[in-house]
Each structure stands twice: as C-alpha cells, then as structure tokens.
Write a structure and sequence with these properties.
Shape: globular
Structural class: alpha/beta
Number of helices: 17
Distance between the termini: 55 Å
Number of domains: 4
Length: about 525
C-alpha cells in the first residue's frame, strides 16, 4: 500500500497529527503536497537515483518531503538535527546531495552549512532562512497530480563508523519500481502488530532516527493515523496515549526509565488501556525495567534487534521474553549464525560475533573496506553489525557486547573515536580514551579518560575546559558528560589502546589483562 491509496479511499482521514501544535495533515493533503514537491524536485533537476538531504526537527512538513522523494525515485537523507555545521557539511558532501532542505529552527547551522557547500538548491521549511527558497511557497506553483515518471525511492541514513566519520547506508535502488510495492518492514509490522487503518500510532522520537522514520512511513502505508510528538516528555506522552486513544508505539528503553520515574499517582492518572502493541529496540533494556513495564502495560511489549543496514532482524514478544529474560528474540529476517574470529560457527550457548545469512549485506556508501569487514571471513554471504552474542537451545539471541565499544545513550549510537580525535588536539591532552559508562536514565553516558601533558595537573577546572572544547567542536550528544584523569593509559608498544581495560573499571568487571 501507499498513502495515495488511502487518499482515494479516505481523503479526509488524518494521516498524521502534530501532538504539540495539533496540526492535522489528511491523506489527501499528504498526497497532494508530496506530488507538488515531487514536481518541484524534478524541476530542480533531481533525477531518479539522485540524493536530497533534510535537516529539521520534527515538523508537519517532514513526511510531505519524504513521501515526495519516495515517489520521485530519490534517496532522502534524514540528517540529525543535533549535528553541528561541519558535521552537516560532511554528510551533504559525502552523500552527494544535490538539494538541501532545512528547518527554520536550525537556520543558524543551515546557513553555515550552505556557506561551506555548493549544492544546486537550498530550500527551507517552517519559516524563512536567508539564502534558502521557502518550500511551502515554492511548492504551490506545481500541480497536485503525480509526476509522469513516478518510481520508488528510499532513505539513505547515516550511522557512525569506528573511524568516527559517519557512513551512509545506501541500499540498492532499482529503477522503475512501483511506489506502492511491498516492503519487508511493512509486512513484518502488519503481521506482528495487527496494525490497520483504524490504528493510532504514537511516535515520540526524532524523525531522523531510522526506526521512527521507517516505522512512521510503514504505518502510513497501512492507513494508520500517526501522532507525532515534537519532543518526548514522559507525562505529556501518557496524556497523548489517553487523549488520542493510541494503539501502537515504538520506543527506546530510556523512555521506559523516564516513565517509571514518574510518581505512581501521576502514572495512574492516565488511561493507557487503548494500547494494543508496543515495541522497543536501539539499546539494551535492563531486565527489571522491562519487567515493570510489562507489569504496568501488560504482555503487549515486543522487542527486536536490527540495524539501519537492514541485513537481518530478531523479534520477541512478551510471553517468550518472560521465559527467556534478556533475550532480543529469534530471527525473523535472515538466519542467525554465531561465529568465532575465524568465521566458524560456535556451539549453542557460546559467545561469538552475530551474523545474518540469507539477506542482503550492508552497503556503506564510499566505504568498500567497511562493506568487506561486515562479511564473514569464510561465509561471504553472511554479514554482521559487529555485535557479540550467544543463542540458546530455543534459538533466542542474547547480546553480550557491542561493536567496538560503541556507546548507546538514550537509543542514540555514539562512536567514541570522533570525540577522541577532537580531545587529542587540545594542547593539554597527551592521550585520551572515550567510553560509555553506566547511566541509570540513558543506559550509558559518554565519559572521557584523559592523560594530561607533562606538567599539567588534573583538576575540575581542566575537566571543564576540555568539556567546553568538545562542545565547541562537536554536537552535544557526542561530548563527554564527565572526565576522569589517569597518569598513563594502557597502550601496547605498537600503539594499540586497550580500551577494554579502561572500560571494565567502570562496569565492575575484574580480571582483565593485556594479552
């Protein structure tokens, strides 16, 4: 299915509602506006297979643009609204975007990114930006009928790499595919969530994230009404469930934590009985937190493990999770293989790297070495996201480690290398390591462990200076929330940093040694 089908069948039914402003966009309006923008994209010279980038906070215009690109056969890059100008510039350049669309609330960064790039076109939404064409006015000059050469486009999302530079995940885009062709996620959601045109789906997260973007568009394909929160707040979230009689939600564990921290009398104020299905992923969920959520909402909470790369997926429903606590489920897309460093499968119950077989491998843009590294050294049709885990006798996967000490804070993937690369340039820093440490609310928090230059004494003032230095050069989410100091960091003679030795101190692990 596709929004245009629902625009014909139920034109005045809400496609989505902005929870904060109350603005409603019907299926007819979504269809017409996305058609107009598709015409504007063609007029701007965007051909099938080309790329556009969208840099905005949650906005009623977001899906009008994404569906326009989808029906024009384009790649659309959803850029994190938290990034700095230099980070946005990198993605614009690396993705090969011909056109940049920015939200008015991000105008300062957008203007800086424009000054550093030379794209064909720059458009704004939700207000004017100097040097940008206002899309709402611009689209009005184009017809609301479909473009003549409609074909399916897709997203191109960026996921940070172990080198610190983000890598675009660019799936193959076959020409002349119908815009309403079935997709894997839509089929999975229809089967596992029971969603239909009467469903109300609440999206509490930033739309530039892979899961919120893809889940919202999949539920729109099914004819459901979306309720889009501009920003997550736990009590407001509960009030939206009650007010809109929400039936379906996709969340991350840090949201569970915030909800459970509300006073019990506040939580009990709101009626959540309309909920039929909730799913979470993106970060480890502590077993006690999930137990409390199931006790509160009932056994309607699913969990999955997958990546933006789309090379496999596991899934578990509450009844199975309650008898296999801590699992992220069994494979529903691809076959699971747990392998040792040589690429050989290990026995049931033993840890190893998690691979999926029988699915398309990741396709990282401009990164053949990363594509190659994702493949099993012996079984080249198996691919991995780099996670470590084990499978029990029932086929349930348990993750026990994560890709090269990636930090997952509040459902956001943060790779420490980029932060380390900034810190090491500070004149008072001799060496540094950035790790994730336990955090009750966000799962993990970013911490830097710094070896000062000779003659520089550790102090709270130095820590504050280094954190300010990071904030001046990186988006806030990548910056350390705290800094500790050590006289020496453990490195091999070859220069390899034994980050596990540093990290294990904060996670209560003992017995680590240098091999």
């Amino acid at each position: 299915m596709h929004p245009f089908h629902h625009a014909k069948a139920r034109p005045d039914h809400p496609a989505y509602i902005m929870a904060g402003s109350g603005e409603v966009v019907t299926f007819r309006q979504l269809d017409e506006r996305s058609n107009q923008i598709a015409h504007a994209l063609r007029a701007a010279g965007c051909k099938p297979g080309d790329t556009i980038a969208l840099y905005a906070e949650n906005s009623p215009r977001y899906f009008e643009i994404c569906w326009a690109a989808q029906r024009a056969g384009l790649y659309y890059v959803a850029v994190s609204s938290r990034l700095t100008a230099s980070e946005v510039e990198y993605i614009l350049t690396d993705s090969g975007a011909q056109l940049f669309i920015a939200g008015h609330s991000k105008r300062d960064v957008a203007v800086q990114a424009k000054a550093a790039t030379s794209l064909d076109h720059y458009w704004s939404i939700d207000g004017d930006i100097p040097g940008f064409v206002a899309l709402e006015t611009h689209r009005a000059g184009f017809p609301a009928s479909p473009i003549a050469d409609e074909m399916a486009g897709t997203d191109m999302l960026y996921s940070s790499g172990t080198t610190g530079q983000p890598k675009g995940i660019r799936p193959p885009l076959e020409p002349n595919q119908p815009i309403d062709q079935p997709n894997v996620l839509g089929d999975i959601l229809k089967a596992l969530s029971g969603a239909n045109e009467d469903s109300v789906y609440l999206s509490p997260a930033p739309l530039y994230h892979a899961a919120p973007l893809r889940y919202c568009m999949s539920f729109t394909r099914l004819g459901a009404t979306l309720v889009i929160m501009e920003k997550f707040d736990p009590e407001t979230f509960l009030s939206h469930i009650q007010h809109y009689k929400v039936t379906h939600i996709q969340m991350v564990p840090t949201m569970f934590v915030k909800l459970l921290k509300l006073p019990e009398d506040v939580r009990n104020t709101y009626d959540v009985s309309s909920l039929k299905w909730v799913v979470h992923a993106a970060a480890p969920c502590p077993v006690p937190v999930k137990e409390k959520m199931i006790a509160w909402w009932g056994p309607i909470i699913d969990e999955y493990y997958a990546g933006s790369e789309g090379n496999g997926m596991t899934w578990v429903k509450s009844p199975d999770w309650l008898t296999h606590k801590g699992t992220v489920g069994r494979a529903i897309w691809g076959e699971l293989h747990i392998c040792d460093e040589n690429g050989d499968e290990v026995p049931v119950g033993e840890e190893g790297q998690v691979y999926f077989g029988g699915t398309p491998p990741p396709n990282y843009h401009n990164s053949p070495e990363k594509n190659d590294a994702a493949l099993n050294p012996k079984h080249r049709d198996w691919s991995s996201l780099g996670d470590v885990g084990k499978v029990d006798e029932d086929g349930f996967l348990y993750l026990t480690d994560r890709k090269a000490f990636m930090i997952i804070s509040g459902g956001v993937n943060i790779y420490p290398q980029e932060t380390e690369n900034i810190l090491i340039t500070h004149p008072k820093v001799a060496d540094c390591a950035v790790i994730g440490v336990p955090d009750e609310e966000f799962g993990e928090a970013v911490k830097a462990v710094v070896q000062p230059m000779p003659g520089i004494a550790p102090s709270p003032e130095l820590a504050a200076e280094l954190m300010a230095f990071c904030l001046a050069n990186l988006s806030k989410l990548k910056c350390p929330k705290s800094i500790d100091f050590e006289p020496d960091l453990p490195r091999h003679a070859t220069g390899k940093l034994y980050k596990r030795l540093i990290r294990d101190k904060y996670w209560g692990k003992t017995g680590s040694r240098i091999i």
